[in-house]
């Protein structure tokens, strides 16, 4: 059995409980790049300086929650002081979660991306993290990064990121898996370059979704640069059978993210009020209206021409295998090296060797 096959099958295995480490069967759910919908919140903020009063009125549609910022495991000043002006760099964790079920099954963060606003180097960075990465989760021992959300929601997920990767994340935004197609359709679709190899695989995902969820999503007619509707883009980003498996899937997620940014920027500012009213109800965050207003201004100041995309752990510092105890597939990685690489990239704009192959452009 190939590594990619084992990884795919593991997505539907139950999260082990800390007490008995048991697994139980659960209904199969699609593995979906849920966080991509969060980018629309950031796109909408591009227009806050022009539609400010309407923006604050629309903020009432956001689902705002509070986090205990004293218990987020934030790296201390002594650790981060080696990076000059590190405190000027803003990090926001974007989370995509499973859809809540009637059975009350744990909700996982299927996709996790870090948005970095770097005014020092005038860059925006979108950094993907592998969901199966084996990390230390406070109170639960070593487990998959994706399971932190199931154990303790956004609070524990931010703490897990900060403690394992030496970061200073205090804020997040999240959506569930129903959001992406709706948000993309609101914008009129996204432009994606589908390779000949991906073409059949994406149509296979569309076929399975249509059959399983009684959808009527049109199939792609040919490979190449084209505008995908919401469900087609979802299938494109979910595809993990093309060469590269889950690694390439994170690259496709970033491609959709970048396409969303570009489409949002091409939207007339006069359309922002309507866009806000449609998008914000999908988003949960702990950011206040003031936080988001400042975020929008900072993004406007940088612009998306300097948007970079990356993924950790790097291939040459990670390997996948099945744990003989719980029989789950994990992505193991060189923790000290990966932590250093992440900190250097986020706080010092150092691109570690091999990153060039991870960037996408569509």
Overview of this structure, please?
The chain has 362 residues and is α/β, with parallel strands linked by helices. It has one domain: 3-Layer(aba) Sandwich (Aminopeptidase), CATH 3.40.630. The chain has helices at residues 3-10, 39-44, 52-58, 77-80, 148-165, 179-186, 196-213, 230-238, 245-265, 272-279, 289-302, 335-348; strands at 63-64, 90-97, 109-118, 123-129, 134-137, 141-144, 171-176, 190-194, 224-228, 284-285, 307-312, 318-322, 329-333. The strands form 4 sheets. Strands 1-10-7-2-3-4-11 form a 7-stranded mixed β-sheet, sandwiched between helices. The chain has a two-stranded antiparallel ribbon with strand order 5-6. A two-stranded antiparallel sheet has the order 8-9. Strand 5 and strand 6 (141-144) form a beta hairpin. Helix 6 crosses helix 8, helix 7 crosses helix 8 (230-238) and helix 8 (230-238) packs antiparallel against helix 9. The longest helix has 21 residues, at 245-265. The two termini are 33 Å apart. Mean pLDDT is 79; it is low at 1-14, 17-38, 44-51 and 354-362.
Question: Can you lay out the helices and strands and say which pair or pack?
Answer:
Blueprint: H1 3-10, H2 39-44, H3 52-58, E1 63-64, H4 77-80, E2 90-97, E3 109-118, E4 123-129, E5 134-137, E6 141-144, H5 148-165, E7 171-176, H6 179-186, E8 190-194, H7 196-213, E9 224-228, H8 230-238, H9 245-265, H10 272-279, E10 284-285, H11 289-302, E11 307-312, E12 318-322, E13 329-333, H12 335-348
Parallel strand pairs: 1-10, 2-7, 4-11
Antiparallel strand pairs: 2-3, 3-4, 5-6, 7-10, 8-9, 12-13
